[in-house]
Design goal:
By secondary structure, the chain is of the alpha/beta class. It contains 4 helices and 4 strands, in the order βαβαβαβα.
Length: 108
């Protein structure tokens, strides 16, 4: 089974990793090489990248890498304001990747 990778900025404090997901920290200068490593590892089926590390140049390089990748590379929206829920995008991506609808439950 393929894994989900989250590429975030340093200020994310490994929040995805605490939830059991694979999380990698990268800035604009390093994100392309991290994506390339993840694709080449063949371990990940979904790679979500924090939109704050993306610009037009980085996106074009990632698009080129994605051409031979059977998984999904997509943008992870910037963190929402406290109290807002951001689970819909992950629900859609996981469902698209595995062909089943998955529900994430958030408990406080």
């Amino acid at each position: 089974m393929k894994k989900i990778a989250f590429i975030t900025t340093e200020d994310a404090d490994y929040g995805f990793r605490l939830a059991g997901a694979s999380q990698f920290i990268a800035g604009k200068e390093k994100v392309v090489s991290v994506v390339e490593e993840l694709i080449n590892s063949e371990e990940f089926g979904i790679i979500l990248i924090d939109e704050r590390v993306l610009d037009d140049d980085v996106l074009s390089k990632i698009d080129a890498l994605q051409q031979n990748f059977e998984g999904i590379v997509s943008t992870l929206p910037s963190p929402y304001e406290e109290g807002e829920m951001a689970y819909d995008i992950v629900d859609r991506l996981v469902s698209r990747a595995i062909g089943y609808q998955v529900r994430f439950r958030h408990e406080r």
